[in-house]
């Protein structure tokens, strides 16, 4: 039920806490992180929105715009922000979509197309599938999808790590190994022949197996 990686992120118009947006225009030439919540005033999501607000400078450094989503209306988002600031020490400093017609949730296949009615009468359990993270590139393609259960808070350090990998591998023909962090060795992409690799990496590489060619992270 989830949109595949590599497909174009659906465009949409929506009301947010920072005014009406057209999604692709709002992204512009940046990267974007769209993350969704089943309901306002839910405990795990409250911690997540506060954590992300504190980490916003890290996303800014990477040229990543943040935008949240809940099916509840904008006025409830504003009241929720007060709780988030009080309990987490930081209020959202990025827009939150009020997806009261479920349009975005349906476009991104987080809710069935048949979903309708008053969002305020729906419980968090009714919307439990609205717990996704989408990372979208400047080309408007979906680069990563993560889906979390309601009981597990998102790890934003991992999301930053993934963004570092995505941005590095978009620029250089490399891949990142398990548990890779910024500055560590990388793997030459399989699409690069040995002849090409000798030109790109004249200093050579480590090769524990012919299909594993390890080099320092490109600058």
Automatic annotation (TrEMBL):
GO biological process: cell redox homeostasis
Family matches, as SUPFAM superfamilies: Thioredoxin-like (SSF52833)
Span of domain Thioredoxin: 3-168
Keywords of this entry: Antioxidant, Oxidoreductase, Peroxidase, Redox-active center
Oxidoreductase is among the record's keywords: yes
Superkingdom of the organism of origin: Bacteria
Name recorded for this polypeptide: Peroxidase
Catalytic residues of the enzyme: 45 (cysteine sulfenic acid (-soh) intermediate)
Keyword Coiled coil listed: no
Family statement: Belongs to the peroxiredoxin family. AhpC/Prx1 subfamily.
Pfam families: 1-cysPrx_C, AhpC-TSA
InterPro entries membership: AhpC/TSA, Peroxiredoxin_AhpC-typ, Peroxiredoxin_C, PRX_1cys, Thioredoxin-like_sf, Thioredoxin_domain
Naturally occurring in which organism (per UniProt): Bradyrhizobium manausense
Entry GO MF terms: peroxiredoxin activity
